[in-house]
Design a protein that fits this description.
Blueprint lengths: L1 E2 L6 E12 L3 E4 L3 E3 L6 E2 L4 E8 L4 E7 L5 H4 L12 E7 L4 H7 L1 H10 L3 E2 L3 E2 L4 H11 L25 H7 L3 E6 L21 E2 L1 H10 L6 E2 L2 E2 H15 L5 E7 L14 H13 L6 E7 L12 H8 L3 E4 L2 H6 L1 H10 L4 E2 H13 L38 E4 L4 H19 L2 H6 L4 E11 L29 E11 L3 E10 L2 E4 L4 E2 L45
Parallel strand pairs: 8-15, 8-16, 10-18, 11-12, 11-15
Antiparallel strand pairs: 1-5, 2-3, 2-4, 2-6, 6-7, 9-17, 13-14, 16-17, 19-20, 20-21, 21-22, 22-23, 22-24
Helix pairs in contact: 2-3, 4-12, 7-8
């Protein structure tokens, strides 16, 4: 990065390095002067804060980031060569379903489909609740609870460095790796987990965005004159331009626009479309696997109370774009990928595909979950076979049942008891969270047996998958999915409850489909996994306020 002061209103300027201090802190280095207008200053730090001193005696601060071509990165060599040596670029947008992409990012969707000839998956399912479950499955091949304990305020938690990250195997094959998330307060492995002790990737922008969150006070979405998404995507451009001859794995995860207001997802479209066009024009896609994806669909709001919304949450956007030569060179892979677009797939399969790229032509072994998308996924695949939890499975056939049915009422009461018991497990929440009671049952569904495979059918621009069920229905074994509202927090929840011989057994995956705002503020930082269940005793607040108490943005001019 080269700096030259051209603005005549600026008398002088200094810059300071932004330095990572563990996972949750950063510090600023010593102040270094930037020379006067006629001198160019070369800056080799990744993240800097610049302070300008103006003629009107005001001070202005800006922050900048850049990938730095350190010598150890340029000289990085592979212990072994990957079987399919393609760059991997992942662009993720929080809470973006397949269908909402068609509605809100229609230009991006059409560009992927018509110009890039992307492979768009219609039956791609989430595997659990929220962002962390999806990204952990995609990047480690295991579920969160299958790794060593990393949840804050659980017994002996450790940072997530020791998890089975795909980054580690990619580095062995010579890949440069990068991760950039634009909202550190909602980091997938920081919000309720212990985070990373050491940076997990070669390029890791968390210190920059942590500084941005402290520096910026206005509640909108720009850094100086650039949108957050443009900052994110400019960084991708710089990495790909700077390291053209190096294999790269880079994941850009974009939260700001869509996490808290799914209707705002369209605001990312101009910058995303521009990036896709630039990548193509500059020939970066000739040697890159491009993945454009959502982690899950919208989890809150009025639409989420409908069956359409329920399915959209479970069916995120997932697309793969390969170079045209690759699909011609590997016709078998091309055929299987196209078949799999109308099969049940999950994030575990994406991890398996990364592994297959490394080991090709050998199929990866020792996979606990998932299968490579280079191989044909069976049409009869069930959610259990895809490692998708029952509560999140989009492939079940359900029948409506009266909310007044005794089993439904008892299921709802069991779910509320489960939630209250969860709060009682910790002294902090037991002392500070109000007891919840059942207010209303909004609807209930009974799982029906399905002895035949139902083919994909388009409904209201959505493509849900259904698969056969081998288990016969039995009067002593029923599974219900219920949506209910509790008092005094006015919270709306969905729970899956299994009835078995007079027992009501609650699935661990209770989801809250209404926003909890600041209701759990007394325990949110210490017990983040209980946010959806807790309403603090001391302060009753609006249940429909923003939940993102750590989100800090800046307004575009």
């Amino acid at each position: 990065m080269f700096f030259i002061l051209l603005d005549p209103t600026v008398i002088s300027a200094n810059y300071r390095r932004i330095v990572r201090q563990g996972n949750f802190k950063f510090i600023l280095g010593k102040s270094v002067p930037i020379p006067a207008m006629d001198t160019v200053k070369k800056i080799t730090d990744e993240f800097i804060e610049v302070e300008y001193f103006l003629k009107n005696k005001n001070r202005v601060k800006e922050i900048f980031l850049q990938p730095v071509p350190h010598e150890h990165l340029l000289k990085k060599s592979a212990q072994k060569q990957p079987g399919i040596p393609l760059n991997i670029l992942i662009i993720g947008v929080d809470s973006l379903s397949h269908s909402n992409t068609k509605r809100k990012l229609s230009k991006v969707y059409k560009y992927l489909k018509n110009e890039l000839r992307s492979i768009l998956f219609n039956g791609h399912s989430i595997v659990g609740d929220g962002t962390t479950e999806q990204l952990t499955a995609m990047l480690t091949g295991l579920g969160e609870l299958e790794q060593h304990e990393s949840r804050r305020h659980h017994k002996n938690p450790k940072p997530v460095d020791g998890w089975s990250w795909i980054y580690k195997q990619l580095k062995e094959t010579g890949y440069l790796t990068g991760y950039s998330g634009d909202c550190p307060g909602l980091g997938p492995w920081q919000y309720r987990l212990m985070g990373f002790k050491n940076p997990p990737t070669d390029f890791y922008t968390r210190p920059f965005y942590a500084m941005a969150a402290q520096l910026i006070k206005n509640p909108n979405i720009c850094l100086a004159s650039r949108t957050i998404s443009k900052v994110q995507f400019d960084y991708i451009r710089e990495v790909f331009d700077m390291f053209k001859n190096k294999l790269k794995f880079f994941f850009s995860f974009n939260v700001h626009y869509s996490h808290n207001a799914n209707s705002e997802a369209a605001k990312i479209e101009p910058d995303l479309l521009s990036l896709l066009k630039d990548l193509k024009q500059n020939n970066h896609l000739n040697n890159t696997l491009l993945i454009v994806m959502g982690d899950h669909g919208n989890r809150y709001g009025k639409a989420r109370t409908l069956m359409q919304g329920k399915l959209e949450e479970r069916l995120p956007l997932f697309s793969l774009t390969f170079p045209s030569w690759f699909l011609e060179k590997y016709p078998g892979i091309s055929k299987n990928l196209k078949i799999n677009t109308n099969r049940l797939t999950s994030w575990y399969d994406v991890y398996a595909t990364f592994r297959h790229m490394i080991s090709y032509p050998d199929v990866p072994t020792n996979l606990k979950h998932g299968q490579s998308l280079f191989t044909e996924v069976p049409s009869s695949r069930t959610c259990a076979e895809a490692s998708v939890e029952k509560h999140w499975c989009p492939c079940l056939e359900w029948a409506s049942i009266a909310p007044g049915h005794s089993h439904v009422n008892n299921s709802a009461l069991a779910a509320v008891e489960f939630m209250n018991n969860a709060n009682l497990e910790h002294q902090l929440s037991a002392n500070n969270c109000r007891k919840l009671t059942l207010k209303d049952i909004n609807y209930a569904l009974l799982e029906r047996p399905n002895d035949k495979l139902l083919s994909f059918k388009q409904t209201n621009d959505l493509l849900p998958a259904f698969s056969n069920k081998s288990r016969p229905h039995h009067k002593d074994f029923c599974r219900y999915q219920i949506q209910f509202t509790t008092s005094p927090n006015n919270g709306t929840y969905e729970a899956t409850v299994r009835y078995h011989k007079e027992w009501f057994i609650v699935s661990k995956g209770i989801s809250r489909v209404s926003k909890y705002g600041n209701q759990p503020e007394c325990i949110a930082r210490d017990l983040p996994h209980l946010r959806k269940f807790c309403m603090c005793k001391k302060k009753a607040v609006n249940a429909y306020a923003s939940e993102d108490i750590f989100l800090v943005l800046v307004k575009c001019s």
